[in-house]
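Subject: Sanity check before I submit

Could someone independently write out the C-alpha cells for this chain? I want to compare against mine line by line before I put it in a report. The sequence has 134 residues.
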Amino acid sequence: MSAVREQLPEGRYGRSADARADRKLKIVGSLLGVLLLGVLGWIGSDYIAGKSAFSGELIKFKVASATAVDVHLEIRKDPAVSGTCTLRALAESGAEVGRKDVAFEQREDVVNEVVTLRTTERATAAELVSCDAR
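---
Independent answer below. Compare away.
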C-alpha cells in the first residue's frame, strides 16, 4: 500500500494563504467599519439636534369670522432659542387670503399659543408654512 498525501503538492496551486495578510485585512476592514458607523452616528445626531432646536406644530384652527382665523400652535424649542413661525390662511379656491409671521421669544421648552390670523376674505383652512430659529 502506498501512503496517502495530506498536503497539496508544493508550488502547484500557487502560494499558500498567508495568515498575516488575512489578519491585516480583517483589522483594516474592522477599522473601516467602525469609522463608517462613527460617521453615520455623527451625521444622525447632527440631523436630530438641528431639528429639535426649534420646531412648531399646528394643533388646530377655527374660522372665527369672515376676516379672521384662530390658529393653535405648539412650539418645541430650547429655552435659550427664539424663533419665528409663518402661518397662512387659504380660501376655498386654494388662494392665499392671509399670512402672518409670529415671533416666539418665551424662555420655555414648550409654548402653546393661539394666534389670530387676519384674512382678506373667508378662509377655509390654515397652514403652518415654516418655523425657523433666529
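---
OP: Matches mine. For the report I'm noting this point. The first strand starts at residue 54 and ends at 65.
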